[in-house]
Amino acid sequence: MQLPIAYLDAAAIEEVAIEVWKDVFDAVGWPPSLASVCDSFGHEDVLSALSQDAPTDTLLQALEALEAFGTETGREAVMSAMQDRGVPTDTLPANKGDKEFALRFYIAQRTDAALADAFLRAQIQVQEGGNQRRYNEFLGKEARRIKNLDGKKEALREEILDFCRKSDLGDHVHVEAFEDDGIYIFNILHSHRTQKPLAVVAGHSARATIQYRPVHGDVIQYDARLGRLRVAARSSSIVECYRRVLGLTLFKDEEFFDGNAVCSLKVLQERGREALDSHEVFGVGRIRMTECLWERGDRDLLQIRSSDCFRSIEELGLNVKEGVFIQAKLKCDVVGKSTRPVTVNIRVPSRIEISQRSQETLIERVLDAVGIRNAAPRSSTISLWTLHPWRHPADVWRMLFGAETDKLVQEQVLLPVQLESAPHPDHLEAGRVLEAHALSDSDFYGTSRVPEIPSRSLTPTDLDGLELMPEAFRLYLRSVLGITNGGAVWDKGDLLDLGVIEVGEYCIFLVYALRAPASGSGDKIRTRAGGAHPVCLIPSSQVHDSELARITLESALPTRRAIIREAIHACGLADCVPALYTAPVRARLIVDTRMGKVWVDGVEIANLPPGSKPFQFITFMARHSAPVCRNEIVKEISPGRQDEDVVARQAKSSANKMIAKAMSAAGRTWNEDPFPTAGTGLYRCALPAYVR
């Protein structure tokens, strides 16, 4: 997964001693790239590991603690929570900086129940206090890739240094940049304004002023697939500088990121509560607007704060379709280990603040689904259909296949070729206007097909490309989807014949559309299907009238579970197969009440009769994303019983034992509690669940 950019703050990482990072990794597990150098790594290696290695849940929790508590405000919240719970302040090491204190606190609370209780309270205080790092987003004029990233770092540093000198921010600037599957990350360390606080130096009793310039770590992310720039800056005064400088340095246009609105709250004014209730993002429950700033004309700026702003608006009879909402705070219930809702603060046109950075991607999906966060303009839509005849530079294939590109090259699905034309680096929007002519084995001259664009010399690297091999791609798709039956060699047509997937008692015949299928292809496919249900996979968002049941793919490389689920619905078989095949992809706990079956992480829980209390307990908990009290559980599974504490605990214990036994029989490691306590007399379901 892509780590939230707030966690890639080089300044915060350097403030924590290497010895402390070792203790953190000992507690939560070592990133793969550091495991072999655990005795000889530095801060740059830590930043590289966080940037490149897939983070574990526990490492994300540690980084969340560093972000939340690694400030003076966060530390005060921790000390206040410890005092409230009667935890001695000397439980944690003294004389430590805020960042080190935050990580020491996180490590200690993993094994100390009192500190864990204080940890939860401190999280609530920080989240409600709005101590979240914000980011600003800007849309580019088009989605465009960055050429010669390394060569542009120094130009970027010089521009930022010039701004710092003119703004009295000192003269220290350090820039690092890297690219990962079309996502470009810029990590910028720069000095800030001089500070001269009154302090007492260790070993001395006299007060004195200490002069220094603090170093700020800012992180900038540019998504070339969407043309979206995200700036996470410590100081808001430098955001506009980054918007201008990135456009100038990367694309020779100061107004490339022109400041058009990325966020809009218009949908909340037009649709009200319905907009938040109909997001349909799996894993997210109720969403409430608890604060909003309402601008009416040039005189009225009203702030509404309530547990439910829309309820208060209705009770007060306000016509919020007048004026504009310019800021809103949303609280989102998210299924997971934490019971705290995720708070997101939106300030138009470009600022977003999210309380739990580990949920950043999920919350962004919610904002997209609701219509608050706008999609960026794209110069073209890339798909296999638009890329025919499938000869392109490697970075084009990476925009389509992402991290799987290198594997496709290894499997010879993509073969290296020398391209015959190339775009001009200063006129990418003009297409491949340079026709390559060989002067020698390593020297080419590109003659321009357009008079306004000059010809120029080319290197073999400029002409490096990859070509898709359809038959190798067909075999690769069969492997990915686990298909072993049926299928036929590619006949140079529009479709790849993948073969048959068995789903319970039914067979589904899959074909993959390399190009828009020709008219009349439906009858041929039905004949080849031999009685199986034919389904056509469409790797393009272009409108197409299919003669078969179809699935429009979100990615050119589908997954087996997603394809089975969509194919079942496309063929009208949803009511005929077990819920395991129709559940959302992210569901970990699946309950089929009609067939009387339960699955956890795809493993069926055996010996669990539908009428038994463990089955009823699991079903009841799976239906509720919020914590439920034990007496409600007892009313459901054993009406009339008075000893709700015993009944609920026994049902939970039996359910957990059966799940653990099924996992062990399947060879899976299982150490989770799917139904943990959520306060006195309360249980909750910690697994994303689906009940049919």
Architecture overview:
There is one protein chain. The chain is an alpha+beta fold and 692 residues long. It has six domains: 5-131, no CATH class; 136-251, no CATH class; 266-370, no CATH class; 384-410 and 414-468, no CATH class; 470-577, no CATH class; 584-691, Winged helix-like DNA-binding domain superfamily/Winged helix DNA-binding domain (Arc Repressor Mutant, subunit A, Orthogonal Bundle), CATH 1.10.10.10. It contains 23 helices and 29 strands. The strands form seven sheets. Strands 2-3-6-7-1-12-11-10-8-9 form a ten-stranded antiparallel β-sheet, with helices on both faces. Strand 21 (506-513), helix 19 and strand 22 form a beta-alpha-beta unit. Helix 6 (72-84) crosses helix 8, helix 9 (149-166) runs antiparallel to helix 10 and helix 22 crosses helix 23 (644-665). The longest helix is centred in the last third of the chain and has 22 residues, at 644-665. The radius of gyration is 29 Å and the shape is globular. Residues 375-380 have low confidence and may be disordered.
What brief labels describe this structure?
globular; 4-stranded antiparallel sheet; 692 residues; alpha+beta; 23 helices; 10-stranded antiparallel sheet; single chain
Give the mean pLDDT.
Answer: 86
Dominant shape: globular
Domain count: the total is 6
Radius of gyration: 29 Å
* Proportion of residues in helical segments: 25-40%
Number of helices: 23
Uncertain parts: 375-380
Count all strands and give the number: 29
Structural class: alpha+beta
Largest sheet: 10 strands, antiparallel
Strand sequence of the main sheet, in spatial order? Answer: 2-3-6-7-1-12-11-10-8-9
**Termini separation:** 30 Å
In terms of DSSP E residues, the strand content is 15-25%
